[in-house]
Structures are given as structure tokens and as C-alpha cells.
Specification:
The protein has 12 helices and 12 strands. With 375 residues, it is of the alpha/beta class. It has 3 domains: 47 residues, no CATH class; 192 residues, Rossmann fold, CATH 3.40.50; 85 residues, Rossmann fold. Strands 4-5-12-9-10-11 form a 6-stranded mixed sheet. It has a 3-stranded antiparallel sheet with strand order 2-1-3. α1 packs parallel to α2, α2 packs parallel to α3 and α6 packs across α7. The longest helix is centred in the middle third of the chain and has 15 residues. It is globular, with a radius of gyration of 19 Å. The N terminus is likely disordered. Bound molecules: zinc ion (ZN).
Length: 375
């Protein structure tokens, strides 16, 4: 064992439900004991001296990933996205351009790490369910890794996203009904023996998403005060939380940024729990929304997302449909061409009002406008 591995062979994954640990060789999917969701067993360990200055993007932070040391990266050049400042309502806002990634969304960060792990584990084929962006990233990285991919998508998912998944050579399975029907179809295939490489269940993706926090810290020279981002399953929010906690535990930042998660009012289960308590979950509907990428009525890591928000001193905001469309136009007029899902951040941002957070405001722009259906 190398010194950089900490000298201990502690299993890197732990079930959030039953606590059972799983080794590095675990391929992904739900806990084989109880069906719960696996999480990273420990925070990533960030060491600035181990940041690889010659590597690009997420691979600068390879020392933080739960990967076999000998595993060759499955990479398309993900991460390393620009941070661009713009004036919004008299306030300087820093936009993190996550949509400028190889497959057009933030999902590439986690998927690069996940597929590096899957290839190292010798997985020949895997499945995913997605409303689009995760499916595109999954199919793209599967192509890069030489792993066969099958992706379950809602039949109503945006045309360009489905075309992108198919172009990468993945088998596309269109499932009638809402987003949750695609998830159920994928879980049924897993029960029939398919390998589930899901971005939702696979905790290696969280380690990849944490690199967005390391990049923000390097780009600003410190942690921002507040970060606004869309929340569906919350995998980017959890990645940011883990990343900033890793920076804090390395003594590099003094406090965590406040996280402001945004949901579409038509499908806002986490916002409902924050507002009404546990009974709020029964009120949440899987309503139609232009923000299809966060149309998630049963977020698999919901408790972890709520805990992360509380820990950061942050909150959830729900925004309605006209605000989302107006937000997409407003962002485009600043030069940011993002999909409607990403645009939920705009009404949340302008809704901060005169509140002056201590430190910079960062907005995560998660997916490309090129993925929207043509009007
Ligand atoms: Zn379990």
C-alpha cells in the first residue's frame, strides 16, 4: 500500500441505510444487502501538495478519488471549467460554466471517475436511467471506456439528449410515463442481472463532483460565500459539500459556503420537506416542468441533501414555470446559453434580494442550451 493511500485498506463505500461497507472492487448499484444507497465511507482527503499540476480538470485531484492506483483514467477532458463574473442586479456573480464539458453538462465530472472504476473492475456492460444529461454522459464515457451501455429514458425526454445518447452507441430504451418510470424500469433490469452504473447510486460520482469545489477554491483563492444550483437527486450539491468539507478538514478554508438548492415548484419534494416537514413529501407531485432534468419526486439521497443544506446554513427554493423560462432568456442575454433545467437558478439568484452574503456568490450553470428541444 502506498503512503498516499493512507496505509489502510478501509473499504471506500458504505451503505447509508444498513452501514455495510463495500470494497473498491464493488461495481456500483444499490447495497447488495438491503437495497439502500451506497455513499463514500469517508470524506475525500484533499492534499494541496498532491494536486497534479500537469494534469487537466478533474484529474488534477486524482489523489482524492477512490480508485485503484494503477487504473488508467477514462477521460474526455472533463472539469477545468471557466468561472466568469457578471453583474446581476448591482451584484457581482461568478458563473461556473459546467455546461462547457465534453458531453455538455456537469455530469461528466462524476462519470469520468465512475467509468474509470468500472473499467478497472472489468465490467463489460452497464445500464443507467436518466432524463438526458446523465444518460448522455454515461453513454459518452461508456464509449470511451469500451463498455456497452443501455440507457432508460422517459419517452418525453428532450430530443437532442436522446439523439446524443444514441450517437455514442448506447442502446436507448424509451419508457412511457414520468421520470420515475424510467428509474423503475432500470431497477427491474438490475433485478434481472444487469449491472447498474447509475450516477445516482454510484458514490464514485460524488468524488468526481467534489472536484467542482476544489476548482472554485483554486479559482477564487478561497471558498465562496454562497453557491446557487439546481437540485434533482442532488448529486452535484453533495459533491460540492464533500469537496468543501475536504478542504475544511485539510485546514484550507474556515467555513463552508452556504448552498442554495433550487427545485421547480411543479416537482419540489425536498423543498416541501423543508417547508412542511416529513408530511411535505406526501404533498410533492411529479408535475410537468420545463426543468425536466430535476424532475425527481423521490430523490434517492434526499436525507443527505437536506443534511448538507442544514450543515451549510443554506436553504431550498422552489420556482415556478414562467420564472424558469424568463431566467433562461435572461441568462442568454448575458451570453450564457443553458438549458431550461439550469435556468431555475435565475429566479433564486434574483430572489436573494438585498441580502449581502459574506463572500462571493457562485452560480452553477449545469447544462448546455444546445440540449433543449427546438422551439
Ligand atoms: Zn445496505
Amino acid at each position: 500500500m502506498r503512503a498516499s493511500d493512507g496505509g489502510a485498506a478501509a473499504p471506500p463505500f458504505r451503505c447509508a441505510n444498513c452501514g455495510r461497507q463495500q470494497p473498491l472492487s464493488f461495481g456500483g448499484g444499490p447495497c447488495p444487502v438491503c437495497g439502500g444507497v451506497l455513499d463514500l465511507a469517508a470524506l475525500p482527503r484533499f492534499d494541496p501538495a498532491q494536486v497534479d499540476q500537469r494534469a487537466h480538470g478533474v484529474w488534477r485531484y486524482r489523489h482524492t478519488f477512490p480508485l485503484p492506483p494503477e487504473a488508467a483514467p477514462v477521460t474526455l477532458g472533463e472539469g477545468g471549467t471557466p468561472l466568469v463574473a457578471a453583474e446581476v442586479g448591482g451584484r457581482t456573480v461568478h458563473f461556473k460554466l459546467e455546461y462547457l464539458q465534453p458531453t455538455g453538462s456537469f455530469k461528466d465530472r462524476g462519470m469520468a471517475v465512475t467509468f474509470t472504476a468500472l473499467r478497472a473492475a472489468g465490467i463489460p456492460a452497464s445500464i443507467e436511467d436518466s432524463s438526458g444529461n446523465a444518460g448522455a454522459a454515461f453513454a459518452g464515457y461508456a464509449a470511451r471506456a469500451g463498455i456497452r451501455a443501455r440507457v432508460f429514458v422517459p419517452a418525453a425526454a428532450a430530443g437532442p439528449k436522446r439523439a446524443q445518447i444514441a450517437a455514442f452507441g448506447a442502446e436507448v430504451v424509451a419508457v412511457d410515463g414520468p421520470r420515475s418510470a424510467a428509474a423503475e424500469a432500470a431497477l427491474a433490469a438490475v433485478r434481472d442481472g444487469a449491472h447498474y452504473g447509475s450516477h445516482i447510486y454510484n458514490p464514485t460520482g460524488l468524488a468526481g463532483n467534489a472536484t467542482a469545489a476544489y476548482e472554485l477554491w483554486e479559482q477564487l483563492g478561497h471558498a465562496p460565500g454562497l453557491i446557487v444550483l439546481p437540485v434533482g437527486h442532488g448529486t452535484l450539491l453533495l459533491g460540492l459539500q464533500r469537496g468543501f468539507k475536504a478542504l475544511a478538514s485539510a485546514g484550507l478554508i474556515e467555513r463552508l459556503p452556504r448552498l442554495v438548492g433550487v427545485q421547480a415548484l411543479a416537482c419540489a419534494p425536498l423543498w416541501a420537506v423543508q417547508r412542511y416537514g416529513r408530511e411535505g413529501l406526501a404533498l410533492a407531485r411529479e408535475g410537468a416542468t420545463a426543468a425536466e432534468g430535476i424532475r425527481v419526486v423521490r430523490p434517492v439521497r434526499g436525507d443527505a441533501v437536506l443534511a448538507a443544506l442544514r450543515e451549510s446554513g443554506g436553504t431550498l427554493v422552489a420556482v415556478d414555470e414562467p420564472e424558469i423560462v424568463a431566467g433562461q432568456n435572461a441568462l442568454a442575454r448575458l451570453g450564457f446559453y443553458v438549458e431550461t433545467t439550469s435556468a431555475v437558478v435565475w429566479p433564486a439568484l434574483t430572489g436573494l434580494g438585498a441580502e449581502a452574503p459574506d463572500g462571493e456568490v457562485v452560480v452553477m450553470l449545469t447544462g448546455s442550451g444546445l440540449k433543449n428541444k427546438a422551439a
